[in-house]
Amino acid sequence: GRVRMGGMHVDMDGQRICESLYQVIIVVFSAVGFIAGYFVESFKVTVYAVLAGVALASLLCVPDWGILRGKETP
Fold it and tell me: Which ranges constitute the DSSP H helices of 1-74?
């Protein structure tokens, strides 16, 4: 027989949490990168900080993590 793998996608609450987390990570990394880049007078520092924030946010928010799946519906 077939094995049913129910609940393998993030539910709406999980998506809401992911979207908020994604935005917060990118904004924080961007702000820190901007301030650091300003003080060292290097735009490269700002760009690297933003890219690191996008990479971290993507790593945390793109996969369907089990904790974000919520309750299974019948």
Answer: 12-40, 43-61
